[in-house]
Amino acid sequence: MKWLILLAFLASAAYVHLRGRVRLRLSRQITDHSTFMAPLNVLMYACSRVPASRYVAVDQFPELAPLRERWQEIREEALALRAAQQIKASDQYNDVGFNSFFRRGWKRFYLKWYDDAHPSAAVLCPRTTELLRGIPSVKAAMFAELPPGSELRKHRDPYAGSLRYHLGLVTPGDDRCYIEVDGERYSWRDGESVMFDETFIHRAENATDRDRIILFCDVERPMKYGWATALNRFVARRFVAAAASPNMEGDSTGGLNRAFASFYRVRQYAKRLREVNKTLYYTLKFGLLGGIFLAIFWPY
Hints:
This protein is of the alpha+beta class. 41% of the residues lie in helices and 19% in strands.
């Protein structure tokens, strides 16, 4: 039975790695979160009611129409937040999902995260949070800023239970400010929206001298079967919600982010070791993974 489980895991991981045209280096893929999430994500792909494509037609989600129709009201609240310097990087290690993005200029203000609106968002963005409250399929939302010269390096998101929606609010209107999903580029425009599968490898860059602010949403992936919908919601509620990160005091912090500060201290030691001795770093890293593998699968 162990070997059947191992075979299913390896087949799922291989599918995730080979899916699409753009891939991570094998050495990175082995330790990427998408490898460990592969069996669950392959199940989500198999049960998905939308096509397995990089970009998904937004008109398949008519419930999102109010966001496009009232994008200027949403923009007003985003601009007020930017003026108040509330769209910002976390000043603590309490955003496990996006911590690496902050180093290259990306900023955010959470509106909700797999729950109702953050208290700070309900106060500072009442119209946007009220709109989002009327669209239950939107599980998470934020204002995301990509200032001039900023970039997000290629990555894929860990869980396939959602699709990513972007609504342009303040954009350069320039093709040098773009997102690239599995090698295919899209450039944001004010009032225009796009949806894509964030488990394809993607990257973003703003090579202009103008700011870019979008409404960024995780929209529940529609499923063919009721049991798959129930499983997706269970995982989102029990695990994805644990990555909740606060905007300010009074907002909730999920369990993953409460533990992240301790984990990050260990990660910093590992980074210093890699700078001093790469051979030892990779020997320890893959030795640990190999030890875990043997502990699970070696026959007694």
